[in-house]
Amino acid sequence: MDEKTVLAELITMSRELGRPENDYVVLGEGNTSAKINDDYFYVKASGKYLAESDETTFVKVKLKDALSILDKGNLSDDEIKELLLAACANPNENLRPSIETTFHAFLLSLPGVNFVGHTHPTPVLSIMCSNRAEDLIRGRITPEEIVFCGVEPIYVEYGDPGLTLGRKIRESVTKYIDKHGCNPKAIYVQNHGLIALASTANEVQAITAVACKVARAIVGAALLGGVHYLSKEDVDRIYIRPDEAYRIEQVKRAK
How far apart are CA 154 and CA 163, in angstroms? Predict the structure, then answer.
């Protein structure tokens, strides 16, 4: 996929995630990114509205430079800002990359991950801001959740948005990959929101939509006596079914 196509798909995905009727974000909330190649990626500029995304919404960033910030020890807010600006391919542009650029860089460095969408959906926040957040998302409740959001979620405790959160996400994702041998699809951040990562923009949109539907179902089930989770055997069976794999491939290829 050439750079022009990557940007066009990122714009379309971002506008979809930012649509008000989806209730995924308001105002300048959320951020998105896409890998251009092994050296560069696009990430939403700070303060831009997802719903209004166009060619001027995104900053081109050097992947290795953004990744290296995660290993630089304790940094002040000003130092982080300067390092993020220095990581830009065109640092003289009047745009500042999202403060959460570091976790986008890490996720896009994973094999097979080309698009990332970070949103703050109200149904997900209803769970993530509760005292039972980790417990409520501990299992899977529908076949669609297994297919689109993976066999197990990642729950990340709250971290200061930016470098601290980026490091927490890197640690949690690394443990997940060591356990399951594959990338996660959905990351839930306490008191913050949802991150979807995938090979295509369409799949990021699907993961986000399914995660929000499931969140609404979990809240409803909790009010009606408790959530019934599928057994590990049922989860494992759904995950390897060829018809389910076919369905997700159709989503990836959708126009």
Answer: 18
**Dist CA 64 CA 66 (whole Å):** 5
Which residues are CB-neighbours of 181 under 8 A, at least 6 positions away?
Answer: none
Nearest Cα neighbor of 163 from 95, 59, 76 is 76
| Token output for 146 | 């297994």
Give the range of the structural domain holding residue 22, as residue numbers without chain letter: 3-253
Residues 59-78 pLDDT 10s: 999 999 999 999 998 899 99
CB 102 within 8 A of CB 190: no
Whether the pLDDT of residue 93 is over 80: the answer is no
Q: What are phi and psi of 140, to 5 degrees?
A: -110, 145
Tell me how many domains the chain contains: 1
DSSP character at residue 74 = S
pLDDT tens per residue, range 24-55: 999 999 999 999 999 999 999 999 999 999 99
**Domain of 143: which CATH number?**
3.40.225.10
